[in-house]
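--- STAGE predict ---
source: upstream dedup step, 1 unique chain passed
mode: sequence only
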Amino acid sequence: MPQLHKCLLTASLAFLGLSACGDVTSPDAAQRSTRQDEMVAEAVPLPIPAGCLLTSLDTDGDGICNVVELVLGTDPNKADTDGDSLSDYVETFGFGGLDLSALGANPRKKDVFVEVDYYPNLRPSQATLDKVITAFASAPVSNPNGSTGITLHLVVDQQIAAADADMDLNPVWPEFNAIKTKYFAAARAPYFHYTVFANQYDGNFSSGISFGIPAQDFLLTLGSFNGTEQQQAGTLMHELGHNLGLRHGGNDDSNYKPNYLSIMNYEYQFHGFELGGKVGALDYSRVQVASISEAAVYDLTAFAPVAPTTETELGKYYGLRFNDAQVSMFSATDFVDFNNNRQYDFNPYALDFNRDGDATDVFPASQNDWAAVIYDGGQIGFATPGMPRHLDREERFLVAPEEMEPCLSGDPDRAP
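--- STAGE serialize ---
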């Protein structure tokens, strides 16, 4: 907890007629993922915050007494006021030697933390990171402090030593885990996602892969084909999206789903959208779009919104892509040249959007991704110290790691 926050808290408590009982101390605590270790950790008492007593009322059992929650502006009835799967306690006071507050955590606004390590010569530029940070900051997500957006903390940590930087991680996860074990601090494990900007895995030219959906870890491998800044940013957001529970069709695995306007759709991973006059803008889907049939594509009606999405919201989308080409359009709710024949056809026609060799598929309505994000990460649950760390979901993964497919491939002709 930053010293300024401590002083403000102490002053507020003094105003309320309470005495502070000293600074918080952070004990060392094992942050391992086995259920046995989780049960042991759950029994470890949290250090009592300044202003709380052993007898103080703590309605939500998060380790912060009600009167201090009143000062902090957090909800005394919720251990996680902002719903980001980081407890109010750990976002305010830290735990296990890790001070999330010093890293910018706010218990009243959603935070996502990612440690970013990188191979020699593959450190991502700040401009690359900022593209993704800006996308999260612009998310249509409400917070208890009255703000919108999610604070994405991309913590660029360290370069992987040349001796450890295997140019082809094969098999991918055992070799990735060897790097993670050496370079990822255990204290961060309950709270951070982990990624490495690497070269290649499993002998292919895939841009990256997630360790399941949702998950804690993901790998970025654009080094094998010299990925551009735009491709790096789009892939970073795409793979992080898998970590947050999003699939290639949002809530299904239907890739190239034409009515799914998201960076999770391969059509947009490397290119982004035209949104708000900005070319290459990154975004998860913030709109719900009605079902569309490959057998009856109609340029003159384009897409239809599904409530609560409005025509106005859908009409903000430009730069739409189908079959690896950006097509002409007025807006996503007006005229769209789906087949890219440089004209608007007055009759419906068939079009194979998902490239499976037929034009008979019907794509269900797409989801609003931002409303479907899973913050607990899928690895250890990112839960509260002193409280259960196991997931409340029945299944740890929606898509198991061994069932993950390589994500969008780059052009091997550009490989070094």
